[in-house]
Design brief:
The complex is a heterodimer of chains A (about 100) and B (about 325). With about 100 residues, chain A is mainly alpha-helical. Chain A is built from four helices and one strand; from the N terminus they run ααααβ. In chain B, about 50% of the residues lie in helices and about 10% in strands. Chain B is built from 13 helices and seven strands. In chain B, α3 links the parallel β2 and β3. The chains are: A mainly alpha (about 100), B alpha/beta (about 325).
Chain lengths: ~100, ~325
């Protein structure tokens, strides 16, 4: 399976889609109401685990994560960059 | 022409209308003899307690103060002050031991330690959302902890740990709702909820927790309007000047960090403007935001409405036909 197919399979398995054939790869997952904020966390956890990448906080944008297609492109870019990044934002500041 | 005046109200008229409705609802529709109000020391609950007192008389209103381990001392002091000024009975119910017995704090600790294993006594935490003003970000919650020296660190949480932390924390609102209904049942009173329009509309409440109430008399009022009403009703200045907080996590947390994208005055305007089809540029001219930022807030309003549908949903029946 391609990266895009694996992401699609995860979405279909974990979020309720009444007719999978109707879910386009460029459909906006959050805007359409298919995925809520907890679902976004689940998608991030999935791509980190499945594709061995680390998603930085500043990368949790609609451009990177709003559709199957965009997630696949994001994963491809991250893998190409091949630079592991921190799981956390790593901010340390005095209270 | 869009301006801050769209939220202007006639406080005397609004108070009178709510009091009439409240009296009819409590005594007539609900057939209860009075009202129980949870007092948090904040402006919403103070306004609701005042309206109940004016509508029903001080003998028919009971204020509940329900501190726990992470509550601020101010909440208790200001709540008691409001009750005393209104001349209503108030009861202090420390819900800490019940939360302890339910494992609320232990379950929170376990969830936090999935991210920060060193978290323990003397540490504090809060949950925050990214600022919508800085860029187009999805609503991914971040856990911030402070060690005993006050050094803060932030991290996204794995989904299971995040859900456990929220679920454990929701015990607080749900235990308080149980205590409210204990007193309501004991006195044959109704439980009066205190959400304002922002909270009610955007789902800033816990289902079967602070979302549980028999009536919600200020749920149609924007927070700005609640403040106007508070001033008219003589709610103490100290309550009115206190910044709205969640008073839920150990680390101080504003409502806009936790849930709303903007300070309440601008959030009110954006919500009004969104619902009245006002162009983002027009809203920007009044609030100082860019049109792009307003568009992001609009999208966030819609996302929170979608998420809050479940919170408002009454139990679903497989067959809603009544009778045999």
């Amino acid at each position: 399976m391609t990266v895009q197919q694996r992401i699609r399979a995860f979405i279909l398995e974990n979020f309720y889609v009444s007719d999978p054939a109707e879910l386009a790869d460029d459909a906006l997952l959050v805007t359409s109401g298919l995925v809520d904020s907890t679902g976004v966390l689940e998608i991030i956890a999935f791509v980190e685990e499945e594709f061995g990448i680390r998603v930085r906080d500043d990368e949790t944008t609609p451009d990177n994560l709003e559709s199957i297609e965009r997630i696949a492109s994001f994963v491809a870019r991250k893998r190409q960059a091949n630079g592991p990044t921190s799981f956390t934002s790593g901010d340390v500041s005095a209270a | 022409m869009f301006s801050r005046d769209v939220l202007r109200i006639d406080p005397a008229g609004v108070a009178e209308q709510i009091q009439t409705t409240l009296r009819e609802q409590v005594l007539g529709s609900l057939r209860r003899r009075g009202a129980v109000v949870g007092l948090s020391g904040g402006v919403d609950s103070s306004v609701v307690a005042t309206l109940c007192t004016r509508a029903l008389g001080p003998d028919r209103v009971v204020g509940l103060l329900m501190p726990e381990r992470d509550s601020s001392g101010d909440a208790l002091r200001l709540g008691a002050m409001v009750a005393d000024r209104l001349g209503i009975r108030h009861v202090v119910e420390d819900v800490g031991p019940a939360l302890e017995a339910l494992g609320c704090y232990e379950r929170q600790l376990e969830a936090i330690r999935a991210v920060y294993p060193e978290y323990g006594p003397g540490w504090q935490c809060k949950l925050t959302l990214p600022s919508l003003l800085e860029g187009d970000r999805l609503n991914v919650t971040t856990l911030t902890v402070a060690d005993p020296r006050g050094m803060q660190r932030s991290s996204r949480m794995p989904p299971a740990a995040y859900l456990q932390l929220v679920a454990a924390t929701n015990f607080k609102q749900r235990v308080r709702a149980m205590v409210e209904y204990y007193h309501a049942d004991r006195l044959n009173f109704a439980v009066v909820g205190t959400p304002n329009r922002l909270e009610y509309d955007q789902g800033f409440f816990v289902k079967q927790g602070d979302g549980a109430a028999d009536l919600k008399p200020i749920a149609h009022l924007y927070k700005t309007q609640v403040y106007a009403l508070a001033e008219h009703l003589g709610v103490p200045a100290e309550v009115r000047s206190r910044p709205p907080t969640t008073d839920t996590f150990s680390l101080a947390q504003t409502q806009e960090e936790f849930y709303f994208a903007l300070p309440y005055a601008d959030m009110d305007l954006c919500l009004w403007a969104h619902d009245h089809g006002t162009a983002p540029a027009e809203v920007g001219a009044v609030t100082g935001l860019t049109a792009e930022q307003v568009e992001r807030v609009y999208r966030d309003i819609e996302a929170k409405r979608r998420a809050s549908r479940y919170l408002h949903q009454a139990p679903l029946l497989a067959d809603d036909r009544r009778g045999p």
